[in-house]
Amino acid sequence: MLGEYSYPIIGQVKTSDGKVFTIFPAVFTAKTDIEAGGVQQSGVYVITSKRSIKAGDTVSALIVGNSIFSIEPFDATKGSSQQEPWLSVTMGAAK
To answer: Strand, coil or helix: what is 31?
Structure first.
């Protein structure tokens, strides 16, 4: 049907308080340069990156709720059981 779209769903996660988040694949494309360790506010979103990103660079990511996280973890966490994404885009005010 015209106007209807389907998106691939990777999975769903239920939090301890009962909220359910659907996980979608995504590609994040930087519109401006972002420095390693930098935090940028873009409208209602806060972009945090542990690596430098140039305008136009793309990053394989996951959308979880209203947030975007890089699929590849930050190098410093290799071998650790606690791996973190090196790029995150979340709603809120920059700290």
So the answer is: coil
